[in-house]
Amino acid sequence: MQQQSDKPGVAVFPPLFFAAALILALVLNWLWPLPLAGRGALPALELALGLALVLAGAALLAWGRRTMLRAGTPIDPSQPTTAIITDGPFRHTRNPLYLSLILLFVGLSLIADTAWGPLLLLLAVLPVLHFGVIRREERYLERKFGDVYRAYRRRVRRYL
Predict the structure, then answer these.
(1) Rounded to whole angstroms, how far apart are CA atoms 40 and 2?
(2) What pTM was estimated for this model as a whole?
(3) For residues 154 and 46, is the Cβ–Cβ distance under 8 A?
(4) Which among 69, 114, 138, 140 is placed 20 to 30 Å from 151, CA to CA?
């Protein structure tokens, strides 16, 4: 019997996947504008919300990344995990880095005033992230860490 690889086998590299989706949203918006905001106070509110989401996403990304580096486990989801991290943002969500990418994606889409990102492309991005990355990582972590991971999974939600 062949031994399974000590890697999660994720389908995509999430940061590049989100960057590609954002670029596609901006290109689509350039070709076929699909603005979110109308006239009046709505664009200012949209910009403020976009900036708040970008700042929150960047802060969560930095916190999660710092926590993983301190634990000595790779940030790259295609590399072997060396530890189950249960502190920092991982006390509140099992996927803070992926949540940060979602916040950044939606925030930047709001700033660009395009519905292509948060309303349309995100509907395609989220299933790929969930099934092609997160679920694969979860199966891998359960195989590798067994009861330790199962106990963590019972205590901490997948997303929020």
Answers:
(1) 63
(2) 0.92
(3) no
(4) 69
CA dist., res. 97 & res. 25, Å (int): 21
Tokens of 99: 């949540």
CA dist 37 and 98 (Å) reads: 27
Collect all residues with Cβ–Cβ distance below 8 Å to 31 and sequence separation of at least 6. Answer: none
Task: Tokens for 136, please give them.
Answer: 């694969």
Look at residues 82, 98, 79 and name the one whose alpha carbon lies nearest to residue 8. Answer: 79
Q: What is the pLDDT of residues 1-31, one digit of tens each?
A: 445 688 899 999 999 999 999 999 999 999 9
Q: Taking Cα atoms as reference points, which of 65, 72, 78, 85 lies closest to residue 6?
A: 78
C-alpha dist (Å) from residue 89 to 25, 111, 156: 29, 26, 10
Contacts with 66 (C-beta within 8 Å, 6 or more apart), sequence order: 88
If phi > 0 it is left, if psi is from -120 to 50 it is alpha, else beta; for residue 11 that is alpha
